[in-house]
Amino acid sequence: MKQLPYYQQKDIENIQKLRTLIKELPPFCVDFFRGIEPRTSSRTRIAYAYDLHVFFDFLAKENPFFQKLDRMEIRLDYLEQLTVSDLEEYMEYLKYRFNDNNQGIVNKERGIMRKISSLKSFYNYFYRNEKLQNNPASLVQLPKLHEKEIIRLDVDEVALLLDEVEQGENLTDKQKAFHNKTKIRDLALLTLLLGTGIRVSECVGLDINDVDFKNGGIHIHRKGGKEVTVYFGMEVEDALQDYLDERFGIDAMPGNEKALFLSLQKKRITVRSVENLVKKYARLVTPLKRITPHKLRSTYGTNLYRETGDIYLVADVLGHSDVNTTKKHYAALEDERRRSARNAVQLREKTVNNHHSGK
Fold it and tell me: What is the DSSP letter of 207?
């Protein structure tokens, strides 16, 4: 059987996972997932399924009417009987709850907001399709979000990070032993992330034949399945060339022959592994900043915006479908640019002679 591309394999895995999750929800939920399928990715639908699990757990634990019911006996019309205060109670419950293994889970603002947004989408779907007469979720106000400070690497920190990857001077002896085997790969990987701003999922999904040195680009699959070419500069090209010299000498495990970045087990590297290696090196360079692959993406976006001043270009290169997402991330830089423009337009020519000089 022909080996499927990485992004298709992931999609199949996600769909299988989603089917398992939906089986544990009340039967009418199937309609919701079928209804949103054309407009959402499999990953988004999995997130919805997890959020609905939490909601039905809450009803079983905290609501006297639902406590008496088996989850599979819950009917859609029962959801109309919930009031705004029931749903506000759910919001309160989300701040601190216990999972099935009795572990305490704390949800911060963004986690609560996502779960309430999921519930609103759920209710809206059935209300729009006239299967519910009431929509209490539409009356619930979302929690106020406090803007998070955007963490990114400064220019000197980027250079220090890549130096550390290359030399591994501050690693422990045990880490150094691994570093000798992985430094060329790690340098190519981090240079690529910092030099193109691609997502970590896009990076691990790369195959060898996705790299096009002739045109200086990589072929990637964006969220939502869109295929694009992202272009890279000389530093990225050099690091990738060095790694490919090494990569062609490795016999990958069956099913991983096409993968660009391999783990020490000779399998396609995972998102978790990339997150761990970014954390390992970044900790040595900027111990106070929590640097993740996504922060490397922000670092690239910042540098690109500083160089070009073109927010639409940044949005396009980062693959944001809405430029407002980009504007939100780079609002502080927009402000900086506006301030620096205050003396750019001159209204009157400066005269050397001061009119008031001694006359």
Answer: B
Look up residue 79 and give its two tokens: 């959801």
Pair of tokens at residue 119: 């519930």
C-alpha of 266 from chain center: 26
- Domain annotation for the chain: domains and CATH numbers: 6-139 (1.10.150.130), 155-340 (1.10.443.10)
pTM here?
Answer: 0.76
Q: Which helix (H) or strand (E) holds 105?
A: strand 104-106
By CB neighbour count within 10 A (0-12 exposed, 13-18 middle, 19+ buried), where does 230 fall? buried
Residue 219 bridge partners (DSSP): 229
Nearest to 144 by CA among 122, 113, 120: 113
Digit-coded pLDDT (tens) for 114-166: 999 999 999 999 999 999 999 999 998 887 776 667 788 888 999 999 999 99
The residues, ordered by sequence, that sit 6+ positions from 276 with a Cβ below 8 Å of its Cβ are none
